[in-house]
Please model this.
Amino acid sequence: MTRADAAHLLPAVDVPRETRERLALFRDLLLRWNARINLIADSDPATIERRHIEDSLQLLPLVPACGPLGDLGSGAGFPGLVLAIASARETHLIESDRRKAAFLLEAARTLSLPHVHVHPARIEAVALPPLAAVTARALAPLGGLLVHAARLLAPGGVAIFPKGRSADTELTDAARDWTMTVERYQSRTSPDSLILRLSDIRRAGA
Model:
């Protein structure tokens, strides 16, 4: 069975005009800051829209209907800040790099996002309310991410992790130490990528 055959298709995400306008403001702010502190490698507005904003926005249908969200290693705000803009949900962005955390704070202030909380600290040092979902993008192998997800998720919570070609290998490696329910979704923005939605995360043998 191929990766594409094993994966569900994600529905298209349609957000209100006001949300699109706010996402455009976020993109422009990112471009201004990126010229100074190199938040991401891309500097073309169209590439940022497709490769970063749309790539993050496609996760929205996988997020539970209620409860706070947490984004691990938020960097320039992908996917956590994009999801916060689109959903107006209580969202916690964890970023240990002080310059990137400063950008996230400025973005939340500029875009009037009082529901966004930025934590300039290492993930293991942050105390959060039980989360309905955690996300992380290009942060660490799956086994390391599951350590944080298991600690931070509320009962019934889910972890949503976009992964590239290594997704199947990372799942196999993680299965040595963890049990979980795995849902696979084909990325709408990258044919070589999968999005993993994980629930019932437990240490193997627990």
Residues 6 and 186 are 9 Å apart (CA to CA).
